[in-house]
Design brief:
The protein is α+β, with helices and mostly antiparallel strands. It is 21% helix and 24% strand.
Length: 362
Amino acid sequence: MIHFGSISKQTFLADYWQKKPLLIKQALPNFISPMTPDELAGLSLEEEFESRLITGSTTNQQWSLSEGPFQAQDFSKLPEKDWTLLVQGVDQFIPEIENLITHFDFIPRWRFDDVMISYAAKGGSVGPHFDFYDVFLLQGSGTRRWMLSHKDCHLDNYLAGVPLRIMNQFSAEQVFEVEPGDILYIPPKVAHHGVSLDDQCTTLSFGYRSYQYAEMFSGFPNQPHADQYYVDPIWNDEQTPAFIPQSAVQAANKIAHISAADFAKFVTRLDSLDQKILQQLEYQQQGLDFNIKALYRLHAVCKIAYLQINDQLKFFINGSILDSHSFDTTTLINFCNQRQLSASSHPVLTQHLFALNLIQSV
């Protein structure tokens, strides 16, 4: 559980989420990262992981970008400082990383995207930049200096001829130094520049999706709101991370009309990379027998949610409605929120989800 210090969780949700940055010192006291720099480098050698190596600094603005999978000798060719390794979607393969997401379940899980982990040698960074999504930056090991700014966050303020989106003009308004267990929250359109202060620096980035009109309403081209983004309502910490409240549907309808069911399908839809990962998991599960004594968990890549439509609860997974008529509603709600299920306690539902290749034994 995250320790917010002098503010409450509800204060964070009302006053900071999607509004302004917040440094939470020792949010996870005595935190020890499940992923070491060497283990992260090992993941970048595998095809399953999307990885990148970035070299450069704002001192000379000489930046380079290489995409994995890498080979071990690639790391021996790197300079002593000013480089960063990034690995995306680590939570989708490493259960110890996926388990960390529950610390952030005061934000709906259906808003979550993935965990990216970075290692940076001393001086390493990816340059000053801004994004359109929310992110919690958990310091895993080592120390990093973060510089933040609201200034010049526009799309024409990027360096030309550089393989990365690095801001041309960046003037820090806030400066923080973070240590293991510290969390820095950064909302959309706040520029940030993190520089490693030593050779042990790892950072875990818990990113949340941004919904642009053009994506949400892809069937309606040339609309006047194409560049607008969905903005969350003020969440209430109700410990139901899979629930879609009516306020979220209303927020989506501030851009254009979308039904509650279509919104649920959209926010649980898998992208092409997630679909490929799920297909690989399905292939690996072929030939496995259902174990009535096992505890099963939803595949990490899966997106699940539920909401109320006309006084009835409807359940959605991976962009489709889940036929729930044959199952106990309370059990389904608990499964959506906890993402795991005991086969011995709920054999019919568990076997149904197993047959759909949506769960795997723990």
